[in-house]
Design brief:
This protein is mainly alpha-helical and 631 residues long. It has four domains: 120 residues, no CATH class; 121 residues, no CATH class; 116 residues; 169 residues, no CATH class. The protein contains 24 helices and six strands. The strands form three sheets. The chain has a two-stranded antiparallel sheet. It has a two-stranded antiparallel ribbon with strand order 3-4. A hairpin with a 2-residue loop joins strand 1 and strand 2.
Length: 631
C-alpha cells in the first residue's frame, strides 16, 4: 500500500484539477454559453463571442472585471456582452471603465476612493465626453514616447469608450427597441421602396411613403456603418479571411440589392427580440438555428472558434498554476517529513502539471496556426514550459527533490506572469510585421526563449544553493557539489540555445532588414545573455569561481535575462519594441532588487553559514550530467 500511496495522493489532486476543466452543464434559461460560442471577426481573426467579451473588458480595465448596474449579478463575460449588444441601456450602467489616474479623477470630480482601482459606468462618464475628447486630442499632439501618465490614461479611456459604443452597434443599431420587428418592416419595404426609387429616377409617379421609408432605412444603416469593430455576419462568398465576414450594416445595405435578408441576419433579429422579451425558448431556438446554418455553410470557419470557447472555459494554464503550487508545498514538506513518499508525490503531480501545461501550449499553437512564441504572453508560457521540462530531466538524474521545487516555482511564477499579461488584450492577436515569419518564429525565437528558460532555471538553482546554504544544516558539501553540477549543466544548455538563437536572429535580420546586426536594444539584450553565460562557464573552467561563486553569477543571470526579456521592451525604441507595458516597470525593478539582495547574502563569509558542512557520507557516483564536469 505504501508503494502506491504517492500515486493515490497525486491522482486525487489531478482528478480534482481535471474536473475543473470539464465544461459545465448549461443551466436552464437563456443559453448564454451558446451565444458565447458564436463566431465573430475582430482584430483580424475569427474568435468566439466569449473571447470578444474577455478582450473588450481588458481594454476597459486592466482586470477584465465588471459590475452590473446596482451590483446585479452577471453570469459571465458572455452575459455582459449580451447586455451590451442587445440591451445597451442596461449595459450603460455597468461599472467597467477604470479611472484611477489622480489628475483624471480630479478633472472629472470623481470619487478617488481609498487608492483602489475605481470603476465607472458609461452613463457616469457621459457628461465628460467633450472634455475627454478635448484632452485626448491634446495628448495625440505629443509623441507616444513622451506622453505622461495622464495623457496615456486619457487616450486609453477614449479608446475604451469608442470600443464600447462600437460593441453596442455590432449586431443592431443601439437605439433599436425591437430589432426583429425592425428587420421585418425593412424587408417588407425593400421591394416597394426600390420601385419608388426607380419610378422617381424615371420621372414617373411614385409612392412618397415607400420612397421615404427606404431612404430612412438606407441612411440609418449607412450611419451604423461608421461603428464597425466586430463583424458578426458570415459572408460565404468572400475570398479572403476578412471578406468572409461582414458588419451588420453591410449585410443590411446588401439586402437592398438582393431584396431579402440573409439567414444570419434573421437569426440575430430573432435572438435579439427574444432576449429583450426574456423569451427563453425563442432565444435558444434562434441560437440552435444559427448554429445549424453555420455548420451547413461554413463548418471549417467555426471549428476553431468553438474550440477556443472550450479552451477559455477549461483554463488549462490556470489549472497548471494550481498544480504547480501543490507541487511546491509537497516538495517543501518532503524535506521535513516522509521524504520518499512526498517527494515522489511531488514528481508525479509535476509531470501531470507539465502535461496540462503542454496541452495548453499545443492548443494555442492550433488556434493561432503559429509556433509557440508569438508575443510576450506566449513567451512567458514557453519559458515556464521549457524550465519545467529541464527540471523533469534533472529530477530523472539526481532524484533529490531540488528540481521538483525549481520546476514548480518557475512554472508557477511564469504562468502567473502570463495571467497578468493576458489582461493587456488579445493573447492570440494577429502578429506584428516584425514577427510575421513562421520559419524564424519556429527557430530563432523558440531557441532564444528556450535559452531564457535555462538561464532562469540556473538562476533559481543558484538561489536554492544560497538560501539552503545559509539556513539549512542538512545542506552538506556533497549536496552543494551536486547542486553546483546541476547549475553548470543548465548554464551549458542556456549558452548553447542563447547563442544559436542569437545567430539565427542575425540571419533573420539580414534577410528581413538587410543587416545581420544593428545594435538594436533587443539584439543587445540577447548578446548580454550569451556573454554572461559564457563568463560563468569560463569562471568555472578557469577556476576563478567555485560552487558558491557560480551560484552567485547564475543568480545575477536572472537580472541579465529579465532585462533582455522585458526590460528592453520598456525602452520603446528599436525594431523589437512591440511589448511596452508601463505597469511592468515596478515588478521588474522589484525582481532585480530581490536578486541583488540574494547575491548580497551570498557574500556572508561561509563560516557563518549553517549548511555546506563536510558530508557525513561519501559522494554519490557520477551521473550522465556530472560527466560533463571537467576534472
Amino acid at each position: 500500500m505504501k508503494k502506491f500511496l504517492p500515486w493515490i495522493i497525486a491522482l486525487v489532486f489531478v482528478a480534482w484539477t481535471v474536473s475543473q476543466m470539464v465544461p459545465r452543464k448549461q443551466p436552464p434559461g437563456i443559453d448564454v454559453a451558446g451565444f458565447g460560442r458564436l463566431p465573430v471577426l475582430a482584430g483580424g481573426r475569427v474568435m468566439p463571442m466569449d473571447s470578444l467579451a474577455r478582450v473588450s473588458l481588458t481594454l476597459m480595465n486592466h482586470y477584465g472585471a465588471y459590475k452590473g448596474p446596482d451590483r446585479r449579478q452577471i453570469e459571465s463575460q458572455s452575459q455582459w456582452l449580451l447586455d451590451v449588444m442587445i440591451v445597451p441601456e442596461r449595459a450603460d450602467d455597468s461599472k467597467i471603465f477604470e479611472v484611477s489616474n489622480p489628475d483624471l479623477l480630479a478633472l472629472f470630480q470623481l470619487d478617488a476612493g481609498n487608492g483602489e482601482p475605481q470603476f465607472h459606468s458609461f452613463n457616469e462618464l457621459r457628461p465628460h465626453f467633450a472634455e475627454i475628447e478635448k484632452q485626448a486630442g491634446l495628448a495625440n499632439q505629443t509623441d507616444a514616447e513622451l506622453r505622461n501618465p495622464f495623457q496615456r490614461t486619457i487616450l486609453k479611456l477614449r479608446n475604451a469608450l469608442q470600443v464600447f459604443i462600437q460593441l453596442k452597434n455590432t449586431i443592431q443599431p443601439e437605439d433599436s427597441l425591437d430589432f426583429g420587428k425592425e428587420l421585418t418592416s425593412f424587408e417588407q419595404g425593400i421591394a416597394p421602396g426600390m420601385q419608388a426609387v426607380r419610378d422617381r429616377d424615371a420621372n414617373k409617379p411614385f409612392n412618397q411613403d415607400d420612397f421615404e421609408k427606404i431612404l430612412l432605412f438606407t441612411q440609418r444603416y449607412q450611419n451604423l456603418d461608421q461603428a464597425k469593430y466586430a463583424y458578426a455576419i458570415p459572408n460565404p462568398g468572400g475570398k479572403t479571411e476578412n471578406e468572409k465576414w461582414q458588419h451588420i450594416s453591410a449585410a443590411l445595405l446588401g439586402a437592398i440589392g438582393t431584396g431579402k435578408l440573409s439567414e444570419p441576419v434573421k437569426d440575430y433579429g430573432r435572438l435579439i427580440s427574444a432576449y429583450r422579451a426574456n423569451d427563453v425558448a425563442e432565444f435558444n431556438s434562434a441560437i440552435a438555428a444559427y448554429d445549424q446554418y453555420l455548420a451547413q455553410t461554413i463548418p471549417q470557419q467555426v471549428q476553431r472558434p468553438h474550440f477556443e470557447f472550450l479552451f477559455n472555459s477549461a483554463q488549462p494554464f490556470y489549472q497548471a498554476i494550481v498544480l504547480y503550487a501543490i507541487v511546491f508545498l509537497f516538495s517543501l514538506l518532503s524535506w521535513l517529513i516522509w521524504p520518499k513518499t512526498l517527494g515522489k508525490t511531488a514528481v508525479i503531480i509535476l509531470i501531470f502539471a507539465f502535461l496540462i501545461h503542454t496541452a495548453g501550449l499545443i492548443t494555442r499553437m492550433y488556434l493561432q496556426g503559429r509556433p509557440p512564441v508569438t508575443n510576450l504572453y506566449s513567451s512567458a508560457i514557453f519559458v515556464g514550459w521549457g524550465s519545467v521540462l529541464l527540471c523533469l530531466l534533472l529530477e530523472r538524474f539526481y532524484k533529490n527533490g531540488i528540481a521538483s521545487l525549481c520546476g514548480s516555482t518557475i512554472g508557477f511564477v511564469t504562468l502567473l506572469i502570463a495571467q497578468n499579461l493576458q489582461l493587456d488584450g488579445d493573447t492570440l492577436e494577429m502578429l506584428r510585421a516584425v514577427l510575421d515569419t513562421n520559419v524564424w518564429l519556429a527557430t530563432h525565437v523558440v531557441c532564444e526563449v528556450f535559452g531564457y528558460s535555462a538561464a532562469f532555471l540556473a538562476g533559481f538553482l543558484g538561489i536554492i544553493y544560497i538560501v539552503r546554504g545559509l539556513l539549512n544544516k542538512s545542506f552538506d558539501q556533497g549536496t552543494g557539489r551536486s547542486l553546483g553540477r546541476m547549475i553548470y549543466g543548465i548554464v551549458c544548455f542556456a549558452t548553447l540555445f542563447s547563442l544559436v538563437g542569437t545567430i539565427l536572429g542575425g540571419i533573420w535580420g539580414d534577410q528581413s532588414w538587410g543587416r545581420f546586426w544593428g545594435w538594436d536594444p533587443k539584439e543587445n539584450g540577447a548578446l548580454l545573455v550569451v556573454t554572461w553565460n559564457a563568463m560563468i562557464l569560463h569562471a568555472r573552467w578557469g577556476g576563478y569561481a567555485r560552487d558558491r561563486g557560480i551560484a552567485m553569477m547564475a543568480v545575477f543571470g536572472n537580472v541579465v535575462t529579465s532585462l533582455s526579456w522585458f526590460g528592453v521592451n520598456m525602452l520603446g525604441v528599436g525594431l523589437h519594441s512591440y511589448g511596452f507595458m508601463e505597469q511592468a516597470f515596478g515588478p521588474l525593478i522589484g525582481f532585480i532588487v530581490s536578486q541583488l539582495a540574494i547575491i548580497g547574502l551570498a557574500t556572508i563569509p561561509q563560516k557563518y553559514w549553517r549548511g555546506l558542512k563536510p558530508a557525513s557520507e561519501p559522494a554519490s557516483p557520477h551521473t550522465p550530467v556530472e560527466a560533463l564536469t571537467p576534472q
